[in-house]
Write a structure and sequence with these properties.
Elements: H1 2-11, H2 15-33, H3 39-69, H4 73-76, H5 90-104, H6 123-149, H7 158-178, H8 186-191, H9 197-203, H10 210-218, H11 221-237, H12 242-252
Helix pairs in contact: 2-3, 3-5, 3-6, 3-7, 3-12, 6-7, 7-11, 7-12
């Protein structure tokens, strides 16, 4: 009886996550209706809260896939409650990704839930555990872009449309970064089980620095330009223009003041 109760509590959705969902819903409503006196504040809170929700679901996808692949320890660690405070590195998983959105408008991959790899049998299962997180970002991107590529924007308020466009940019950039085959990122986790033991041993010491290496490259104007050109091309193919993502980011940064360019008709 105690074991059953314990397992149920391990999978109960955390009040912290419910609170974040509530903030997303309320600020999304405020953005849609224009209820807030400062629309930029509502957009900032809506996008930030929705981004944190996606980060929580990203890590949940890793944990849930690991659970079904043999790692039953994820429940006791609290990973199935969607509580971001239970992650191995709450700073890396939540705080830094939010700061990067504020500073640079880029979807920083979070980290991480600790998976006991020894409990998982089979290379395909290991690859799927790593892929589950960024695939969640892909799903979020599909949801955010659906009104655009379905042509369902009639009646959608401009500020809400801009907010969705910016949120889509974050999801696409997060998916692309996560799928890079760089040690420490999910993309490397997908291919790692298929590498020889010798290669894995040689690469292992570089895993803690993989993300830092990627962002050091993104500081280079040429690399940064190519990266965002790819993102823009993906978003354009889904019906989202540069104007919409630009204005979404400008509206998000409400502290910089209003942008007259974004007040013009799209």
């Amino acid at each position: 009886m105690t074991t059953a109760t314990s397992r149920h509590s391990e999978r109960r959705i955390s009040p912290v996550f419910i609170g974040i969902l509530a903030v997303t819903a309320v600020t999304g409503w405020a953005t849609w209706t224009g209820f807030a006196e400062q629309p930029g504040v509502a957009v900032f809170l809506f996008v930030t809260a929705a981004w944190i929700v996606s980060l929580c679901l990203h890590e949940y996808a890793h944990a849930r896939t690991a659970l079904h692949s043999g790692d039953i320890s994820v429940g006791a660690k609290g990973y199935l409650t969607l509580n971001p405070l239970k992650y191995t590195h709450a700073l890396l998983s939540i705080v830094l990704p939010v700061l990067f959105v504020i500073m640079g408008g880029i979807g920083l991959p979070g980290g991480a839930v600790f998976i006991e790899q020894g409990r998982v049998r089979g290379r395909w299962k290991h690859s799927l555990i790593s892929a589950a997180g960024p695939l969640t970002n892909v799903l979020f991107a599909v949801v955010c872009t659906a009104p655009f590529w379905l042509g369902a924007l009639d009646g959608v308020p401009t500020d809400f449309r801009f907010a969705l466009a910016f949120l889509a940019l974050l999801q696409v950039s997060a998916a692309l970064l996560n799928f890079l085959p760089v040690p420490g990122l999910d993309g490397y986790g997908v291919i790692e089980p298929w590498l020889s033991y010798g290669i894995r041993r040689q690469v292992e010491p570089f895993a803690p620095f993989g993300l830092l290496f990627v962002f050091a490259l993104l500081w280079l104007p040429a690399v940064n330009g190519v990266f965002f050109d790819v993102i823009d091309a993906i978003l354009k193919s889904l019906g989202i223009s540069d104007f919409e993502t630009y204005c979404g980011q400008e509206l998000y940064r409400f502290w910089q003041g209003s942008n007259e360019f974004c007040s013009a008709p799209a």
